[in-house]
Amino acid sequence: MGDAFIRHIELLGYEKRFFPSQHYVYMFLVKWNDLSEKLVYRRFTEIYEFHKALKEMFPIESGDINMENRIIPHLPAPKWFDGQRSTQSRQSTLAEYCYTLVNLPHKISRCLHVVNFFKVRPDDTNPITDSQIKKPEVFLLPKDAKKNSADITGPIVLQTYRAIADYEKSSRSEMALQAGDMVDVVEKSESGWWFCQLKNKRGWVPAAYLEPMDGPDESEEQEPNYAGEQYLVQKSYTAVEEDELTLKEGDTVEVIHKLLDGWWVIRKDETTGYYPSMYLQKAGEANTSVKSELRNRSAPPRRSTIRNAKSIHKQGRKQISQETYRRNSKKYLQSRRNMKEKFQNKANVIIEKNEREENKPKAQPAVPPRPSKDLILNRCTESTRRKIL
């Protein structure tokens, strides 16, 4: 899968610890590119030292040469004594710092300095404690505070993408593009519509019209999952291209590859094909007004349908053919059937064995030998002895 990188860092709150002396640590939920989520604990002094080293590594982006070029966020220095009040009040600043850090250009956000700092350490999984000392006190960040910290309210620098072709908007909420435009992506929706900004303009843009600057392939895309996830079709769609599927509302399908352009590869029985992700809902998941409103929009265009697309990359995007999807799906389905039959046969053997045991004639208990006259006279009661005399 390539080098590890961080997709998201969420500040959960902080802990007040009493060993080896009273101090405070912040709790972070770190989400990695392999979809794993790890909980790590860091003191603010550690975070500040990490921040200073990051600035030294990237003097231009930290504004040391020209302040106008600064994109690395600011972080206040720790106080001589960090008490609970300062630890608590610093949370919103720290949450915004982490959010901005992850969305910096890849050469910064995915550098070894950032990756190594947020990797799980032994004391994250087994913190040093003393049974004689008070247990740590946990202070979770309120849900409203988490929501506010993730809002785009300031000049947060996000990933920059390039438009590969002209795009004419079809609604007021969309944004028109010209080939070569450089846009900042504010939000990547799994529907395939991305919210972008270009100078003083903002609006929704089809992800298929955008390409990352550092390579033709989208590094955030997941690998296929041939086990599949169950989804329900919430809106019917009639296939336009040969590799798409036609489905009706209420159909059950298995999603085997989630692509960022909003066209997911799904499996219906043994057939695979593309389908708009915005018309699907995970089985068991509650419907929301946002999702219902989203389904009223049209599906985003696919890259294969874009005319006059001009990429800056010499090599094209790596694509998996539908034949490969079908072949691997059939292999998985067959292995699942074999496993099911194996378990069924094993269950049948157990049932037959139990039935044989039940039908087997049960052995009768042996009749004990009659005790001798001398044994009765020596061990039995007076009344029993009288009966044999």
TrEMBL record:
The keyword Phosphoprotein applies. Residues 352-361 have a biased composition (Basic and acidic residues). Residues 351-389 are annotated as: Disordered. One of its GO terms (molecular function) is superoxide-generating NADPH oxidase activator activity. It is found in: Cytoplasm. Residues 156-215, 226-285 form the SH3 domain. Its main location: cytoplasm. One of its GO terms (cellular component) is NADPH oxidase complex. GO terms for biological process: respiratory burst; superoxide anion generation. CDD domains: PX_p47phox (cd06887), SH3_p47phox_1 (cd12021), SH3_p47phox_2 (cd12022). Residues 4-125 form the PX domain. SMART domains: PX (SM00312), SH3 (SM00326). Keywords: Cytoplasm, Phosphoprotein, Repeat, SH3 domain. This is NCF1 factor. The gene is Ncf1.
